[in-house]
Amino acid sequence: MSTSLPERHAADRSDDPLDRLPLRERKKLKTRRAIQQHALRLFESQGYDGTTVEQIAAAAEISPSTFFRYFPTKEDVVISDEYDPVMMDLFRRQPPELPPIEALRRVFDELLPQMLATDQDLLMARLRLTSTVPSVRARMIEATRSGTQGALKEVIAERAGRRPDDLDADALAWAVTGVLMSAMYAWMDGAVAFEDMAELVDHNLAFLAAGCPL
Predict the structure, then answer these.
(1) Is residue 118 part of a domain?
(2) I need a labelling partner for 57 at 20 to 30 A (CA). Which of 40, 68, 141, 175 fits?
(3) pLDDT tens string 164-202
(4) How many domains does the chain have?
(5) pLDDT tier at 103 (50, 70, 90 boundaries)?
(6) Cα 189 off chain centre by
(7) What is the pLDDT of residue 4?
């Protein structure tokens, strides 16, 4: 059972959530995105396994060593994005009296529509590769703890006044990560009635907040 979306705060939003990043990070992001777009185009045309780092570097007009400065592995060019710091910043801006999941509902209500407006095709391409290429899926699982789950654990523990290694904050961060992944793959597969992924994410978070009643 889902509750209604939290009230939007349009006056507090920038046109692009990535504008919240420092200038230096935005410059690095521009290069990262160019490399990623070339990589995804090559993966689409000749397959993931048929594409080499050298080919991606040549298409992006960089050296292979530059590629590896931005992406530690070929798999990382699929799974990496820049939204975790933005999510953490938005979370810290939420009213302190909100429970963690309610604060996250507001964060994703703001962030996801903006992500999808600019990056929906990119996100879909990445999800398809993650679901179909075993090495990418394995790398995604390996990187989750230091990525989105790690970011969630940090801000949840901070909000609750807990230690960074708090087990309850860790468990909640994994639970949130799980419902986010469930929403993304269900949306990609078209297996649910929700056409808007933001509404599907909110449904899943509300279900989690309610104690997962079945």
Answers:
(1) yes
(2) 141
(3) 999 999 999 999 999 999 988 888 877 666 667 888 899
(4) 1
(5) very high
(6) 18
(7) 39
Q: Is residue 121 part of a domain?
A: yes
In this model, does residue 14 exceed pLDDT 70?
no
The answer to whether residues 122 and 36 touch, using CB atoms and an 8 Å cutoff, is yes
In a domain, 2, yes or no: no
Q: Does the residue 4 lie in any domain?
A: no
The rounded distance, in Å, linking the Cα atoms of 159 and 60 is 41
Residues shown for the chain: 214
Range of the domain at 60: 13-209
Cβ neighbours of residue 133 under 8 Å, at least 6 residues apart? Answer: 48, 49, 78
Six-digit token string for 62:
């960089």
Whose CA is closest to 146, among 89, 197, 76? Answer: 76
Distance of CA 213 to the CA centre of its chain: 26
Given a contact cutoff of 8 angstroms between Cβ atoms, the answer to whether 173 and 156 are in contact is yes
Tell me the CATH number at 160.
1.10.357.10
Which tokens in the block code for residue 94?
Answer: 């939420």
